Amino acid sequence: MTTNCAGCAEASEKAKELKKIIAKYKDTRGALIPVLHEAQEVYGYLPLEVQREISLGLDIPLAEVYGVVSFYTQFSINPKGKYQINVCMGTACYVKGSNEILDKFKTRLSIDVGDCTDDQKFSLDACRCIGACGLAPVVTINDEVYGKLTADDVDDILDKYEDK
Amino acid sequence: MIKNIEELNALKDRALGNITVRLDRTENPSPEGGKIHILVCGVAGCASSGSLKVAAAIEDEIKKNNLGADVKVIKTGCFGLCAEGPIMMICPEHVMYTKVAPEDVAEIFENHIMGGKIVTRLLAGEKEYEEIEDRLPQIPFFAMQKRIALNNCGIIDPENIDEYIALDGYQALAKVLNEYEPDEVIDEIKKSGLRGRGGGGFPTGRKWESSAVVQDHEKYVICNADEGDPGAFMDRSILEGDPHSVIEAMIINGYAVGARQGYIYVRAEYPVAVKRLGVAIRQAEEYGLLGNNILGKGFNFNLEVRLGAGAFVCGEGSALMTSIEGKRGEPRPKPPRSAEKGLWKKPTVLNNVETYANIPQIIRKGADWFNSIGTEKSKGTKVFALGGKINNIGLVEVPMGTTLRQIVYDIGGGIPDGGTFKAAQTGGPSGGCLPAEHLDTPIDYDSLTKLGSMMGSGGLIVMDEHTCMVDLARFFLDFTVDESCGKCPPCRIGTKRMHEILVRITEGKGTLEDLDKLEVLARNIKASALCGLGQSAPNPVLSTLKYFRDEYIAHVVDKKCPAGVCVSMIKYKIDTDVCKRCGICKKGCPTQCISGDKNTPFAIDQDKCVKCGLCMEKCPFKAILKNA
């Protein structure tokens, strides 16, 4: 029987990718963090099954894998939105009002920091300094950088993505 | 493949010809290799504000006008004037244009490149100069700087190793391998007086020595590029603008201490830096400057990039090493020091990016040249990332001992919108605030520590009267509570308690007793936390308590926030003399707490008001006052 399920094909494609990643780092010292980074690239986040796969592949106890995943803020065990909003909360941005911008995103999307909208379209995070202090306050949405913002700009920015 | 020093020199001579047009034209009057070079900043702030689109537009314009033989565009590192980005410079005349949009490019070509006339509206700094001349030194922002660590940033193409070699790149490595014994390298660095640029300011030469004396066939050198201090981005700029200077220094470091393997630990938040480092390492490997038998001198050294994953504590040496080992980035108690037992329990030297960026020039120009710059105990220069309420936001590199006033006013251009300088924050979450009374302090490691702050990695955030110092202290404690790894109780629990007190104060529920409690807690945490992160976490609180105690007292006694930042203490009031009773504020109020109509004066019910400020924003007559 052939499967026509697009989701299954995608899942097995990803599983293959993951196997490749693990094989690539198998003999590297301190491989866990690079593997987690690349696995997250593939899956968008690190669900328990993926962590289990990595634990088996690298022969590291699952508890330790989970311990590392939960220690570092870059690793997420929850799926992220199609558009990942990051509001920079570095000092330079903060003294220029980034908290007001973050509040505006929270109210407009009705989600809290770290959450994702129900339609999986937007996720909202407050991040540490991204080193674009010349443009403070700064927000990034996926790879796009928005600088020198005020809370009033938030609606226009989100409208751009709502239509997509 | 460069087999020996002669081949390196031959390559240098060839490569130099290609970039003479970018160097000072009085020294190099006959530019070859293209008549005009257009340098576009392709990193950090400029890239974020669209400089790559500008570079693409320039390419298009070159093609359109058939100028391929005469005009070349180069994506360089940071010029420093980040707030004015995207920035470009046209050489040989060294004219700098700021805030260039892709739409401006056609005009630049028509008037400047082909017409020989400056586009004055896009000029940096003084706009009145019309003549094409070497004007950079006339802009105060550049005139007062001395660039060592940022020497090549903004001049060379960071993705082209030849351009680095053209400007004496890898000559320091050649000199070291050819003329120096390992201990002589360490002596030279010790003599230079270079101190670590990442925070503590530990003498670099001594650090190298303590690892060199340990006998072990397996040793490591690590570059700490986990620039977590919010508001500091000099390491990012160096890695993105001049990655080879760091690589060269690390090879020298390896030779000096007897290590054959190096790691660069970079924040994952800096994807461009990671990419550039990858390119640079590959090029150095192809040229045989990394790998086995470097320059035919029998020395082997390899380099690997490791990514952080968003943990501030990994900027601490032992935590960083634990993270490279693939574990939770928790620091460990010392001794043993990393010089004896570091990465994989082997002797390890860890230096910061900016520290490394100084090394090749110290070797080339000599320790005496370097230690003639700076103050008695702090030699050389320091890169500061100016941010916050200051006109010229960006990166500046000044000799140690430059005063805060010179940095903020002469180079930084002062406070925007006629604001007044209130304080400068240095050292990020580990540092403190310098109030206006210390504007004339010459800045070096020791003067900052004496004032209760620290150099840190060089973030310098300027604040004006609209910043509440209590709220700022709370902001930094927010940061440390969040970033505390949780291993030692003083940091895990202590900073949390401090944070709770600060929240109480900013909500108007604090008491005078709270201030004493804060101080006691702060001193205890400083004395007992396991690592530098915990030990320095109370600094922002202690320094604001020291210099801005009156502001704390206003919060706890008068229940007022003088800067008007702490929301719960803000009171909106309607000035009935100015109010025209139009009712716009009443319509807009989300909690319907405004009463009044044509015949009765408007008023705000303070109990219901959520202090959103919408009424003040909407009022056409400015009749709503904040904290009056």
From TrEMBL, chain A:
<keyword id="KW-0408">Iron</keyword>
<protein>
    <submittedName>
        <fullName>NAD(P)H-dependent oxidoreductase subunit E</fullName>
    </submittedName>
</protein>
<keyword id="KW-0001">2Fe-2S</keyword>
<keyword id="KW-0411">Iron-sulfur</keyword>
<dbReference type="InterPro" id="IPR042128">
    <property type="entry name" value="NuoE_dom"/>
</dbReference>
<keyword id="KW-0479">Metal-binding</keyword>
<dbReference type="Pfam" id="PF01257">
    <property type="entry name" value="2Fe-2S_thioredx"/>
</dbReference>
<dbReference type="InterPro" id="IPR002023">
    <property type="entry name" value="NuoE-like"/>
</dbReference>
<dbReference type="InterPro" id="IPR041921">
    <property type="entry name" value="NuoE_N"/>
</dbReference>
<dbReference type="InterPro" id="IPR036249">
    <property type="entry name" value="Thioredoxin-like_sf"/>
</dbReference>
<dbReference type="InterPro" id="IPR028431">
    <property type="entry name" value="NADP_DH_HndA-like"/>
</dbReference>
<comment type="similarity">
    <text>Belongs to the complex I 24 kDa subunit family.</text>
</comment>
